[in-house]
Amino acid sequence: MTTASDPAYPAHWEADVVLRDGGTARIRPITTEDAERLVSFYELVSDESKYYRFFAPYPRLSAKDVHRFTHHDYVDRVGLAATVGGEFIATVRYDRINALGRPASAPADEAEVAFLVQDAHQGRGVASTLLEHIAAVARERGIRRFAAEVLPANSKMIKVFTDAGYQQKRSFEDGSVHLTLDLEPTAESLAVQRAREHRAEARSVQRLLAPGSVAVIGAGRAPGGVGRTVLRNLLDAGFTGRTYAVNKALGPERRELDGVPAFPSVGAIGEPVDLAIVAVPAARVPEAVADCGEHGVQSLVVLAADYAESGPDGRERQRALVRQARSYGMRLIGPNAFGIINTAAGVRLNASLAPEPPAAGRIGLFTQSGAIGIALLSGLYRRGAGLSTFISSGNRADLSGNDFLQYWYEDPATDVVLLYLESIGNPRKFTRLARRTAAAKPVVVVKGARHSGTTPPGHAVPVTRVPDATVSALLRQAGVILVGTVTELVDAGLLLAGQPLPAGPRVAILGNSESLGLLTYDACLTEGLRPLRPLDLTTGATPADFRAALAAALADDACDAVVVTAIPWVGENGAMESGDGQVLADALREAAASAPAKPVAVVHVEIGGLAEALSAAARTVNKGAPQTPPNPAPEGPSWTRSSGETEERRLGQSLSTPLGGPPREATRIPAYPAAERAVRALAEAVRYARWRREAADPGKVGEYEDIDEAGAAALIERLLGPAPAPRGTTLTASDAQELLGRYGIPVRPTLPAPDAAHAVAAARRLGYPVALKTTAPHLRHRPDLGGVRLDLADEHQLARAYAELTATLGKPEELAPVVQAMVPRGVDTVVRASIDSAVGAVLSFGLAGAASELLGDTSHRLIPATDRDAAELLRSIRTAPLLFGWRGSAPVDTAALEELLLRVSRLVDDHPEVVAVGLEPVIVAQHGLSVLGATVRLAPAPPRTDLGPRRLPSY
Description:
Number of strands: 42
Helix content: 25-40%
Radius of gyration: 33 Å
Strand content: 15-25%
Shape: flat
Distance between the termini: 30 Å
Number of helices: 28
Strand order of the largest sheet: 1-2-3-4-5-6-8-7
């Protein structure tokens, strides 16, 4: 007898999931309390589905059936149910069997599995999702195979099994199809799972952003207020669907608000509602959500505050809100949200509090802050930039940036993704999705709250121990363009949305100011670009001169991008003139339109009307949006449009987006008020373009014949023992050396020297010359503190060094001295690997020493690392020149160092029980390298959340 409150109840099997159509369901174990739910569910199943399940007419369940299907031991007999609104919509169960097909217990490792899905919910991917979860449960209970008997006519269920990606066998026996599935996850089953996850989550966002009908709950009877403002914005944007106002205080005499039908509840509307904007106080939100859920609303945007951002009580309210919304199959934006916008001509949705609606464009914008959202919308509007979609998620309790990456990846209306993030709930998944999206279109991220050390108020997310610098490095590895400020976010977004990607780092600079050209030149060098000598057109240059010079630069094969600098020019009478910005804008557009596709950016200072002209040239307003005149914005970038651009020309053949979609908008030329801002945006585009080219060939994981994977696994099992400590254990020096040796990583022996006599004996054993060093924690790896003596050639030098060391730094028992044979001199480096449950396994590299640690000069890559990753690890630190021959020094053996990195990566990837490896120092000489110190930490393998069945996070 097991109930949900019983200690034996496996609560960790409960999960919220997104189904194929974008709705949600809850999966949980079936308990003895579910008898009535089971009977009610079965009554709604068609006779045909019952026949497919039981192979015979089975109109109703007997009392014995109900008892059997609700009583489980959760080991040999398990039943799971998918529920919506608390009621069953599907069930699955397995029964462990032996080789004869009879009921059995462990160690039998096969089980018979059967499904039943309510007809109204067939086709939503319920059975496929249940199969993922019941398979995970079975593996946990020691079951390795599923057997299923399916009638040949039940093609839908056969497809559920055959499409799952597991290794399987299929035969026809006694009039039914016999299927056997090996439950060990495969590359194919993982690919199938992630493809289904992508379709489901993208569909849930699509339902949110493109509703056929919207109800604003809490629209006030008098003008003003949050609800009435959202209603007004919906109408002003020209929303193409049906709009309703809901206010429970409305009397029978009030039938409309602002010209739209008004009702006291969602249920009173009498027609389907796809999206509800909840603009009532937090105390009234549960009632509104229940009203929505009971009447088929698909998505919610909750504007109310006073949730997790207000403290523990608010956090519990937030969790209850998410549970309630998901129980009805609804997805949720918020709470504490600012709203959502979709500028598509067929939708024209502005369900937000935005005072200035954006124009239609090609940028998708997601922000976790309402204040930052307001600033970004206002700034983009003033600069003439258009958006495809905008989302301000507030406390991101349900839908998050991951969901919108799933949507934008295939959205033909979005060319560039901009994200303002204050927390990343699932860094491992975000990195995976960002990498996939970045291979198709730029993803630009600015992350707030990087150094606060705490989670932003309202963001209930798991805590990761990985430093922000490491997360940032991993995001860059995934192709994310990571910028430091909101201004840089906009600057980079405008250039990427309006210009082709550069083919390389060579930059032509032209303009009518030598000084501004030199500033641009210096900025290019600072950002790692290769600027050509600036072309000074002199202050007397006319717009025609600009046009000719720009056309010539774009036609020159020696440059990959052009920066145009402009200041007021000198007129015929010698006086400074601000000129006509429209004339200069037309000249630049004409040159860009007639030349090969290369990115162009404009740096302007006090050019009268230029910023307005560029912004006006780009501005297009939705027909349903108010025609608000543009505001001048000399402090920010603006756009000018270049006509005649094609899709192929925009990205170039080598960087063309693999996804289909309509032709892009005409190319726009961004303008900036400072050279540094323009060059920084261009540099980000150069680095991103290089990443896209290299992403086509990610490299290979190291393969070495001398690796003893099986021997290492046996050693790890022995070292962990039958009951390993949950927090793990650090191996002794000898055990660490043995384990690393299985992967071809020799560690130089170190012998203890508790006194001078032992030091001399150790040196005789190792052979002179030797090194004497302390291993005390406060002196370890700190040669700058005097705890190391090198090149001791004989007993006399060793004895003297021992005496000096103990006299200066402390007693031998405090210093724990050791003796080690000298190795060829080289560059001291550090190699580390660690596993974090949120990020995954990370490989790190840097030079040894206090200076590198103080500067944080360490590079990081995800494991498994490829040969390309290993090469980039060495070259991406600021002190990399020391490895390649700095100031006449001989270059070291970087090939040996890259091989070491790949071997460490293989060790951690092959054996997840190896949760930390530290090799310090690693001396890299001209030929070969030497590992002088090593630490290895083992622990039970951490759970891989990215390999389990699909589930929504619950914080």
